[in-house]
Amino acid sequence: MSEPHGTVVEQSPPPAKDRAAGTGRADDGHRRFWSARRVPAGLLALVILVIAGAFLYDIAAVRADRDGMSWRRELARQLAERPLDDVWVLTGAGVAAALGLWLFVLAVTPGLRSLLPMRRTHPDVRAGLHRDAAATVLRDRIMEVAGVQSARVRMKRRRADVRAVSHFRELDDVRTDLTAVLDDAAEGLGLARPPTLSLRVRRPGRKGR
């Protein structure tokens, strides 16, 4: 069976303690999907490869009774002569600390903010819905309400901001219908954490804006 557009399904074995319990934990569906971080990992691996290759070549050259690379001798001299409060030493340390902090944040955060976890109906399967797909579903349901001329939906991790323009009917009536439709549509998305809805309905401005 094909999956709806914008839906991602991941199949994996449940944790051991969940297998023992027979079902997944109640809050498993709320966990975000983890990004593979392929680009940062590839760049870091490339930098380490270049640096390690340069030092390996320098060591091999020294072992072969050849002169070591000039940049390594200059670097060693600079590190030996420059004081710790030198501006270049502090700048280099700051850059290294910032890069290390960035890599640490990438390592401990899930990423994939555009993928919303869905409720788990089976302990071995996790599914996620892209924000754009969820926003499209909500917008399509909004446009079915009588009196709605246009709508815009911004889907966030825990909230959906809905802006609708009504060109006839009383705004209170349109707002009531939209609230009921959106509550039903949000529940129908099957998200592990249904979004909080923020709804605003207005009349069109000049020239239909």
Order of strands in the sheet with most strands: 1-3-2
SS summary, helix count: 6
Helix-residue proportion = 40-55%
Strand content: 15-25%
The class by helix and strand makeup works out as alpha+beta
Largest sheet: 3 strands, antiparallel
Distance N to C terminus: 42 Å
Instruction: Output the radius of gyration.
Output: 28 Å
Low-confidence stretches: 1-5, 9-27
Instruction: Give the number of DSSP strands.
Output: 6
Query: What is the residue-averaged pLDDT?
Result: 82
SSE pattern:
EHHHHEEHEEHE
Q: Please tell me what the overall shape is.
A: elongated
Could you characterize the architecture of this molecule?
- There is one protein chain.
- With 209 residues, this protein is an alpha+beta fold.
- Helix content is 46%, strand content 18%.
- The protein has 6 helices and 6 strands; from the N terminus they run E-H-H-H-H-E-E-H-E-E-H-E.
- The chain has helices at residues 16-21, 38-63, 70-81, 87-108, 131-142, 171-188, and strands at residues 7-11, 115-117, 125-130, 148-155, 159-166, 196-202.
- The strands form 2 sheets. Strands 1-3-2 form a 3-stranded antiparallel β-sheet. A 3-stranded mixed β-sheet has the order 4-5-6, with helices on one face.
- Helix 5 (131-142) crosses helix 6.
- The radius of gyration is 28 Å and the shape is elongated.
- The two termini are 42 Å apart.
- The model is unreliable at 1-5 and 9-27 (pLDDT under 50).
